[in-house]
């Protein structure tokens, strides 16, 4: 049976003012896949995620989710349809407790039993968050904040999770924990993952497919292992 497409971008142009940062991006994210988008600083990786989540409008091209165009669909409605963005810098609310931060991810969901069950899932996977559930977000380490940011996104019942540099500035052990969480979200809940990373090896180690973005264009789409083994591509676009 054919794999369904979770997200499809077709000639997407988007950016800031007169100056597009994406110059016609084509991208297919299969349902249940982990797709890593890699590329140098300024390649347009964050812009790509902002455009998919609806924070930035497209000036040309189209984004489809499960075959339906997202043109004109506002951010909140995209979240309800299961597209949830975990932005750079782990934006947890410092004044709120861990538990309150988690609850924010599920504000629009009505069923308290379901919310409690989801919270328990997050705590089970990240016991450090369970221990700190009544502490303020401001007291967490960088790694714990990242776990909380992903946990909060999970609370929204995403179909597709968009992650912007979750490994940035974290110790290798913590990065490994975060990556296993993403693998678990896919395995256990069939969540499709679109992961943007500068940490290329880390991202490719859990991804099925690697996409190289350069100056706002997709220059390669390959099975992750193949991409990692391609010296020429690595030298040209990834700097290692
Ligand atoms: P980084 O890892 O540095 O965030 P990136 O691949 O995510 O890189 P983007 O942040 O998407 O790249 O940036 C793509 C281009 O858009 C760059 O030329 C950048 O300078 C520009 N850009 C990013 N954010 C803005 C903004 N808020 N206003 C104007 N230009 C921006």
From TrEMBL:
<dbReference type="InterPro" id="IPR027417">
    <property type="entry name" value="P-loop_NTPase"/>
</dbReference>
<dbReference type="InterPro" id="IPR003593">
    <property type="entry name" value="AAA+_ATPase"/>
</dbReference>
<keyword id="KW-0067">ATP-binding</keyword>
<protein>
    <submittedName>
        <fullName>ABC transporter ATP-binding protein</fullName>
    </submittedName>
</protein>
<keyword id="KW-0813">Transport</keyword>
<dbReference type="GO" id="GO:0015658">
    <property type="term" value="F:branched-chain amino acid transmembrane transporter activity"/>
</dbReference>
<dbReference type="GO" id="GO:0016887">
    <property type="term" value="F:ATP hydrolysis activity"/>
</dbReference>
<dbReference type="Pfam" id="PF00005">
    <property type="entry name" value="ABC_tran"/>
</dbReference>
<keyword id="KW-0029">Amino-acid transport</keyword>
<comment type="similarity">
    <text>Belongs to the ABC transporter superfamily.</text>
</comment>
<dbReference type="GO" id="GO:0005524">
    <property type="term" value="F:ATP binding"/>
</dbReference>
<keyword id="KW-0547">Nucleotide-binding</keyword>
<feature type="domain" description="ABC transporter">
    <location>
        <begin position="7"/>
        <end position="240"/>
    </location>
</feature>
<dbReference type="InterPro" id="IPR003439">
    <property type="entry name" value="ABC_transporter-like_ATP-bd"/>
</dbReference>
<dbReference type="InterPro" id="IPR052156">
    <property type="entry name" value="BCAA_Transport_ATP-bd_LivF"/>
</dbReference>
<dbReference type="InterPro" id="IPR017871">
    <property type="entry name" value="ABC_transporter-like_CS"/>
</dbReference>
<dbReference type="GO" id="GO:0015807">
    <property type="term" value="P:L-amino acid transport"/>
</dbReference>
